[in-house]
Fold these 3 entries.
Entry 1:
Amino acid sequence: MQSRHLLILLFCLIALALTAIFLLPFPAGFGPWSSESDLTIVYQFRLPAVVTAICCGMALAVSGHILQQLFKNTLAGPYILGVSSGASLMVALVIISTSALPFISRSFSIPLAGFVGASAILFLILMVSARFGYGAIILLFGVIIGQLTGALQNLLSYLANPNDLKYFTLWSMGSFNSTIDMDLMVFGCTLAGGLIWAFSLMPSLSVMVLGDEVSQSLGVNTRLVAFQLLACTGLLTGIATAYCGPIAFIGMAIPNMVKILFKTANFKHLLLANALLGACMALISQMISSVDIASVNIPVNVSTAIIGGPFVIYILFRNRN
Amino acid sequence: MSDILHIEALEFGRGTSLCQPVSLSVPGSGLIILSGRNGTGKSTLLKTIAGLIPALSGTITIKGTRLPSNAQASSFRTAFKTFNKLSHQLAYVNTDRVKEDYIKVQDLILFGRFPYLNQPHTEKDLQLLDEAVNLLGIAAIRNKYLNTISDGEWQKANIARALVQDTPVIVMDEPSAFLDYPSKVQLFKDLRTIADQKNKLIIVSTHDMDLANRHGTAFWQIENHQLSISETPFDLNS
């Protein structure tokens, strides 16, 4: 039983490695890379994009897994909690204000704004959940917050000048290409911290399948665990959105796929599988996005939708049967 | 204080008290049948004993562990300590059905070992699992997924989960509610067997009085905001 899981995890790891290796030399052809420019392309552009995609995929898939379990809803994901939309609103604000105040650097302020926006929404959700528990009500609260921030974003888009509007629209389509050295360090460290935190909470989360009362009688402090899980999710989603924009579908599709593939109650295995498959999906999306189609690159959010959309529809109808 | 369960001047309810103050002592193992009309507070009493709802006043002591008062229970830290300690003394079973397509019956049962935090599971965990599965006669379904078993099988798996928790007290809220008649007969027989063989105190709320009366060792009844206790079954016609 255990060895079967290990085998699947190993398979995921190989798939991940193959995808990364395939993606790295994509523009330069397969080696040997002779010219300076080939190496520059690989080290300066492709490698950071691959690392970013891996980190982002891991963060979003693990967040999705946690939220789906916590809210007992197979269609939940980081999007639903409104965390991504909070980040989007802040970024829209920054884009508009930086065009008025040109001395503020966008490459620095946009990730920061994304993180602040995500954290603000998360803080709001934590306050509400401390008062009202963490059932379906938090999910609905997240949806409403998403609508509200969406409306404010629309207002900002309406007021924005055409250049800013285009910039913001491009940001909201997601990209793994906008990170440089320092960003990768921050992203990687935050991800590692978040994943270890989530990993340590997995046994408690697995027991919480049985409902609050039974899990409390089994020694789980459900309120404290849920609080920590929400904070952890906010951290992971916040950092991913800050650097890559609001990426859809990875957080919703991957946890479902993992559950179908693994069929296990061992949530530590589920978390590892989510991290690996999430990274795979992000890399595949990046691969699709880096192919020139009639000299146009498809944005990442379109690629994730192409891969994830049909699968999520399949899950929807599978559950109704 | 060697009593397995000791209750003193307990008032229970959500906000307002449902019942006159209750004082009682249970010295040892047995099968206690709790009866009463809908809405009299059977579930609330059981949840209060299980530490899931704080008592309004009075004290509950289980095997020397005293449950926290209302004020103490509201802090995260006290709550954590209580859940942790109590999970070695008392197991709780309700009727909430879980239908997951990735959790097997034996995974569910092994969740009962969570308080002992063995990862991976030890010999003792697996031995308790085998014992519980055989005692309840569900060895054939231990590898089935939770969405493929019947309500009766779910109830048995749930009871097995409480058994491997290895606690002196088990509290069950209407375990016979969704079962067909033969399964109900079997359930009460099993509960009595468990109480006798394993030396456990099992407190069960139920409406199936004819069956419960045959197998119970003590009887509690809530009527007119009063908990009465008897060694013999209550007369159904009174």
Entry 2:
Amino acid sequence: MYKFLDHTSDILMEVKSETIEGIFREAVKGMFSYLLPNGGVSGKISVRKNIKLKSVSFGTLLADFLNEFIYYFFAKRLFPVKIEITQMSEFFLECSAVFCRVGKRVFGNALEIKSAAYHGAEISKNKNFKARVIFDV
Amino acid sequence: MSDIKKVSEFKFEIPPCGAMKVPGVIYASEKMIRHIERENVSKQIENVAALPGILKYSLAMPDVHWGYGMPIGGVAAMDIEKDGVVSPGAIGYDINCGVRLLRTNFTEDKIREKLRDLLKVIFRNIPSGVGSRGKLRLTQKEVGDVLEKGSVWAVERGFGTEDDISHTEEGGCLRSAKADFVSNRALERGNPQLGTLGAGNHFLEIQKVVEIYDEGKAKAWGIFPGQITVMIHTGSRGLGYQVCDDYLKVMQTAVRKYGISLADRQLACAPFESEEGRRYFAAMCAAANYAWCNRQIITHRVRESFMEAFGAPLSEVGLELVWDVAHNIGKIEEFENRKIFIHRKGATRAFPAGRKELPEKYRSTGQPVIVPGSMGTASYLLVGEESASQTFYSTCHGAGREMSRKKAMKLESGQSVVSRLKNEGILVLSDKLRTVAEEAPAAYKEIDEVVEVCDRSGISKKVAKMVPLGVIKG
């Protein structure tokens, strides 16, 4: 589950999930709901990418993870349809993602996100996991 | 909440506490400081004040607002001889996001009837929005040349004049740029976008000069009442975002290596003279050069569009470049007879008269400072003053956001903003009404008040005021 909160200059997203892997997957889903508010993705060509990341905390790992998808979207017009996280620790993540290529029209309707910031990127656990991420838009 | 003390009418201070190495200084009115306190921007000013090697103060310009790492409107100068650091987060993702102002020979009566047609031609010739791709297709070698030569590359290929180069901050080229330090990912994102406006708060405006405050300087700069001007606001596009992203990762590791303690990971940094610092600086300069080249190519397309819309030669249209400012950048500058490294994030350099870095035309007047307002509100032309030494010769960069995008969208729909502005005589062209709603004038601080604080605190002085007639939003 994700929702967007008030932030004066940028976009603040809060994500909740029962698992840490769920936080990462849900954050990608939330981010693309902002990027493509009108949806419309129906590409058929699928591309598989393996993503390996090292970072210094869960929070920065989440920002790095989202930035991988920002890169694939803006540089290659790839939209993730399936994300399988195969290994994960506080400092390391490995995943396999399947993408479809977004058509020119849908891509042209996208909003811009420059990056997921490290500032405020944090994951906490009470009963469930909760994360916050700020996007520079 | 920080203890903010008023030191003069438009200057407030946060005395050093905790890890702060220097005080924080905020330029604001009483009304503005209350908003700044509510937003807790002072926390971010304090975090910057704790960076290694910071000189004198952690500064906040009158348009300061909550950002990430350093606030938008923040300025921090570093002592590079004493392990002063360079931080990608204190420059921002859109490296060398900036503004340039072109002056025409036209007045409103000449363009009013053809304004819609003119906007349509510009909209067609200058791609805008997320998916936009420029008309240029460059080889890898050519992209490398853009990164190391900036505006000079564009002018060498016929996209402008020698005057365009001399009327751009740093001559449109930071010589320390090294294309080799820019990642393939950044090149991939940047290559197709050269000559595009982009999205979000980037825009192109047709404006009219409505007020002159300093006749001498306005005349020297070729500005007169009623004159039509063109303002271009964009930056380094995806290339700059990726450079910032790439080096923020590098700096996370560097922070541990150099034993730097940070209150905010977004301020990750390395000593300027370290390998990591040098590499980032070279890549940042390359992204800055890309942004100058981008604005230069857009300038060329604006000139082509005016000639097409009016069927007139450039000699009749004018469109000389008044000046081009960078407002997200890190540079080595001379201050009190020594070299310092200065971060400006949402802040503009404002050199006074007499600075050798300025071209002859501006050496006797001081540097023009271009301050864009929000869509539908005024923009200003200011001038650098010697009294700006208190801010390392820096001033504001715009109005500064006051309201979240979410709130702005609830307040008024994009279509309503377009209709309302049309009734006020301002045409808006955008293929994304959501962006128009997010960027509505009500979402920003009052530009008049921001500029007034700059003027009265002496960090720059008013020269002219322009209002929009036509706006293109990405």
Entry 3:
Amino acid sequence: MNIKSDYYRVWEEYLQKEEPEIEEVQAKAMAARLQGYEEAMFGFVMFLLV
Amino acid sequence: MSDAATLAQERTQIITDVLEGRIPKRVPVIPALTYEYSIEYVGMDLRTATWDTSNFETVCDKICQDFYADYFPVIHLRFPALYKTLGAINWIVGSSGWLQHPEVVGLNEDEYDALIENPLNCIMEKVLPKLYKNLDTDPVTRSLVMAKAFTIFSEEFGTIGAVTAKLSAKYGYANANLFSAAPSAPFDFVADQFRGFKNIMLDVRRIPDKVEAAVKAVTPLLIKMGMPAGEPAPNTGVFMPLHMPPFMRMKDFERLYWPTFKEVVETFSKAGLKVLIFMEQDMMRFLDHFAELPENCVLWFEKGDPKLAKEKVGKKHIITGFYPVTLLHTGTKEECVDKAKELLDILAPGGRYYFNFDKSPLTLGSANPENIKAVLDYVGHNANY
């Protein structure tokens, strides 16, 4: 589930749009890992508000 | 198979049965002692113990040895190191080591529109710097504070996860996770730390349209917070403590609280999560609403009439709670066990019930540990179907 914000990124979309020179296979590997940190930071921010 | 593994299998089965609405072999016992209570019980100093993560295993191991439970019995959610690093005004470390939660305002009235337009942007730019004063600084310093805070958060939850798994294997606790996340109800989310108790009550009367829009705007964030990355493991639950309904008029509750809360619960339930709802204070006048929620929510009652709850929601949902922690402080062992028998007689017939107290004991002075042991032992060994 994605959230629209300047502070939340969907890495698969970002890499396709902003760094198209990266090969698809590599972009997928990068996105899989980086998205995990994105979600962890979102969870952390929400934890600070409950 | 080891004794602990056999025990875990049996306990997992009774908890699975109860969560699925089937009558289990016996009533599961799922107490939730706070880490703070546990620290005092083992004789450590609360002012220092929570600062060393290695204490968590020592403290919990002693609790597991001494108190009967079918599920890992300690909950730990508030970390002084985290709040101190952030310069928190919403969780203050007191001289006794307790974290106090004062009334705070993270969102000014004239910032409602920003929250409604883009909740996460508003949180990052306006709310967090108000609640955490060490984030209200230059970007470089703020990035360092945030990095330190996230490291603490990861370390604390990493420790909790590892110790829970280790001790669950050692003591044969059920394979379940009822607290995988703790998203608020959307109205509570806006009330608790954004507007504060006093302001939200005024807002509900003066600017209900703004409140309604804000509550709707934050709902996707809370759904996202509770949703697992993939298919949830069996017996995975999200914990939703409800705060504001007892203070609301029915018409305000029905307009501003219920629709988004119901949407969140329905979404979690559809995703295969168990929803553990803590009904703070007395929620009896809302029972008909809760009867509308998807089947097999867990309703953890603090106050009210257990007979009425059983009658109105007990055939559809799972009930727990109602056992007054205050009695554990004032009562004799016999009186405490008698109270457990009384609640078992009302709530256990037909299943859909597990034993827990009406709330988690906070301090050693608030609940006599010998009474807790007597009650948990009694229910654990006598509440057979």
